[in-house]
Amino acid sequence: MIKWVAGGLGIVIGVAHIGVLGHLLNKNSLPTFVPPQVGPRTSYTVEATRDGYIVRYRGDDPTVMTEEIVTDQSNGAFGIGGRSTTTRTRQFTPDGQPMPGGAGGEEGKLTAEQIACIEAAGGGRSSGAIVGGSIASGVLVPAVINIPYVGWLAAGWMTMLGTDMGGNIGAEVSQTISGC
Which tens digit of pLDDT belongs to each residue from 117-153? Predict the structure, then answer.
């Protein structure tokens, strides 16, 4: 009985190996490709060879749009001073919102007010993280440190939670005080 089962199993495994080898040795077929979803601002390119394919896909192309605004105006009274042309470039996202950082004086430069707000947020986040970590380690850690097996881990979580929350609160308060 065991000989028949072993023989039958050997035959099944042998046929399966021959089928797999036949599939692997068939080099006449190119790989199949299912194209990605295409919308109004998407693009993709495909390079297919016998060894495989490469797909380059851009899901929101272009992500930044540029518009040039040309202003033509006359100088002086009754056009006696000549004409001048001013060209201004505006960058915006597909939904029409201006690009972050592009609202400054020169293209791509931050204004003094924006720099002051960034500095205030950074300083407030740093100070708030120190205070939040101190409060958490003094108040929350003693409550969880005695939990069996995971107390040391819970104490670290509480300290990190206090540091993160303190940093976020500190940044908000600092920006509010600075008028950002």
Answer: 888 888 889 999 999 999 988 988 888 888 888 888 9
Contacts of 131 by beta carbon, 8 Å cutoff, 6+ apart: 166, 170
CB 140 within 8 A of CB 162: yes
pTM comes to: 0.41
Distance CA 166, CA 126 (A): 9
93-117 confidence digits (pLDDT tens) = 766 677 665 544 455 577 888 888 8
Half-sphere exposure of 136 (CA within 13 A, CB side): 20
- Over the chain, what HEC string results? CHHHHHHHHHHHHHHHHHHHHHHHHCCCCCCCCCCCCCCCCCEEEEEEECCEEEEEEECCCCCCEEEEEEEEEECCHHHCCCEEEEEEEEEECCCCCECCCCCCCCCCCCCHHHHHHHHHHHHHHHHHHHHHHHHHHHHHHHHHCCCCCCHHHHHHHHHHHHHHHHHHHHHHHHHHHHCC
